[in-house]
Amino acid sequence: MLFLIACGALFAGVSAQIDLRPYNLSAAIMFVNNDLNNDGFLTAHEFDQVFVVYDFNDDKIIERHEYVCYITRANPLMGHLAQALYDEYDNNNDHKLEVADYDAFYKKMDEDGDNIVTDLEFVRYWEALFLKTEAYSLKGQSHATHTDKYCLNHGHAHG
Question: Is 94 part of a structural domain of the chain?
């Protein structure tokens, strides 16, 4: 997600790991970056706008490589974490992300089922997800960088 890039760059430093701790702060930053109209709520429409950003070729399907290229462009060491998050989004495990996957993910964050994700719901969900994926973020993995033709061809070169 867009916000993950900012968090990764903010907390990574020079080490070979990504540390998004404290998770509640990273999640709060992510929420603010995705609350497009700054009303304190994240709607399904706002969340779906993130999908559009990752879909480089505008085919309504986000392939794993599209997602990883986007996430790792700010910090190539986020490769493992990007892979783990892709799997979290892939609700039906068909190895492609479509709007239905994003909608299902949104519903997971919506604790009370009112079709609106509050900042508290968002932060709680992402704190748990960061904890679940902590092993991936703390060990880091470099993703192919400037010579990755797919990323370069889609205007998402690293660096």
Answer: yes
Q: What is the CATH number of the domain that holds 107?
A: 1.10.238.10
What is the enclosing helix (H) or strand (E) of 117? strand 117-118
Spatial neighbors of 154 by CB under 8 A, at least 6 apart, are 56, 57, 66, 69
Provide the number of structural domains found in the chain: 1
Instruction: Tell me if residue 42 falls in helix, strand or coil.
Output: strand
List the chain residues with pLDDT less than 70. 1-17, 138-159
Residues linked to residue 97 through DSSP beta bridges, in sequence order? 62
Residue that the structure tokens 């997600």 belong to: 1
Q: What are phi and psi of 10, to 5 degrees?
A: -70, -40
Residue 158 lies in a domain: no
Tokens of 43: 């709607």
Q: What confidence tens digit (pLDDT) does each residue in 1-38 have?
A: 554 444 444 444 444 567 889 999 999 999 999 999 99
- Domain interval for residue 68: 2-153
Six token digits for residue 115: 């079709």
| C-beta separation of 24 from 50 below 8 A | no
Task: Locate 108 and state its tokens.
Answer: 């997971």
CA of residue 143 relative to chain centroid, distance: 15
For the chain, what is the largest distance between any 2 Cα atoms, rounded to a whole number of angstroms? 45
